[in-house]
Amino acid sequence: MRIKRLSSALVLSVVCHFIVVVIVGLHWVRQTQQFKDFIGAEVLQPKEPPKPKVRKSVVKPVIKPIVPIQNSVQVALNPPNGAVYDDVFFKNTGTNPFIDTEDDKFSTFGMDVDTASYAVMRRYLRDGHLPPAEAVRVEEFINAFDYNYTPPADEAFAIHFEGAPSKFGEGKRLQLLRIGIQGRLIPDADRKDAILTFVIDVSGSMAEENRLELVKKALTLLLEQLRPSDKVGIVVYGSNARVVLPHTSIVNREHILTAIRALRPEGATNAEAGLQMGYKLAIQNANSDYINRVILCSDGVANVGQTGSDAILKEIRAYVKEGVTLTTVGFGMGNYNDILMEQLANNGNGSYAYVDALKEAKRIFVENLTGTLQVIAKDAKIQVEFNPETVSRFRLLGYENRRLAHEDFRDDTVDAGEVGAGHSVTALYEIKLHENAVGKLATVSIRHEDPETGHVTEVNESIATDALKGTFEEATPTFQLAASVAEFAEILRGSFWAQKGSLKDVHQTLEGILPHLEAKTHEHGLRNEELLSLVRKARRFKEQKEG
After folding, report:
1. Which of 8, 20, 239, 492 supports an S-S bond with 268, CB 3.0-4.6 Å?
2. What residues contact 213, with CB distance under 8 A and at least 6 apart?
3. Fold match between 101-186+376-546 and 193-373?
4. For the chain, domain boundaries
5. What's the whole-number mean pLDDT along residues 55-60?
6. Comparing C-alpha atoms, which of 295, 354, 347 is closest to residue 330?
7. Which fold has domain 193-373?
8. DSSP class of residue 394?
9. How far apart are CA 298 and CA 235, in angstroms?
10. Antiparallel, parallel or unpaired: β 194-201 and 291-298
11. pLDDT of residue 46
12. Could you tell me which CATH class the domain 101-186+376-546 is placed in?
């Protein structure tokens, strides 16, 4: 009898323990889901545990905090020796496929002049790591270089074509077609006066790696280029946002510099409040005869207020209607949100740059200041119509996140890209020709709105097979440069179409063409030489990883 009672007690105990385990398990699952909802994105785990820890990309654009930051300066946390940065967010936008012209002969996308992805790659390589594949946007690598396109005389854009056999592509009759679009130049002296609103992230995360100090140096470079008729206002945000400096004439440059130098990291990250206050200040002081632009300097993290990108982007789109545009400039790596910074710029009718070092700030704010500030074309779109009688299939390299529906090309309510003065846009297509193909290859159409008049213009130009060079080596050095840069990016992002690609081949090609490149400026020449060094580093890191 006692044994039966013991058995009953034992069974009851087991059942109770089982119920407790189930309850705890359900609670754990619920908490895990809440945590995933909390951060808004899943950080990928490393594929090879023994190797350096890589927290790579996320595919969801909504970003929320991983660890709440208290109302105090966050101590910089360096990753373990050899580790890649934690908590970086990039979006995998996929890779464009080859398309048969019998199925679809059109290719449509919005222009893009961003170059942030190239600078992010450089930061990774400088720190001894290959960039995550999701961080590589091919078009931003290509557009980081100057190809000496002749500017238009009177129009907004000049279109340039060049084609040759694809050195890096696989398959017979595969050609590489380069479409180069050069924007109208505006001399610095003819730039419109500017009313700029700096929105500066001073949250705790900006203490890491001296990010805020780099922001200060970058903005100091910018201030040195502005003229007395320009104005600058400053908004900062940590846990809350506040106006540090109302719009002030550059005549009082030292007063503005004093306000910038006094900035210190503080608190959490209320990006929504910072942008709201920045746009409010910008709109209050806007002048239709001036450039009205907000310049956001941040690591892209948001953990107070509306932290999801959808809510913030909705507000940004509303501000654009007030005539104020946005430039986003990213700083830092580790606890960095590339997704939000790019989407803010796209929705704010502006551009996105990443500053990995002071020389990049100089390129943005000194060498290309007029292009950074003054827009020559709004909602600029490109549509390429291939001739099915000569071209059997085609593939656009990059621009995956700028794709548009074909019917959107002439729908002027659809948002596209903004292009600054003197900026150029380059698109590369791999095309497969029919055997013995002769005649028109494609027609390129460009459509954009004039930011001054609101008038929409469309221009068209065609290219024929007789414009194709007989060999890759016969093509101009700048064509070969663009092809090499694209292949470099394709290999880094692990493109299906570059599985047999070799960084050794890219390096050798660059070594052969660099002596023949005519750089417009000393800085352009240094950038070309730097590319060779970066390919060399990437090749070494890739061989170490694979070997």
Report:
1. 239
2. none
3. no
4. 101-186+376-546, 193-373
5. 39
6. 354
7. Rossmann fold (3.40.50)
8. E
9. 12
10. parallel
11. 33
12. mainly beta
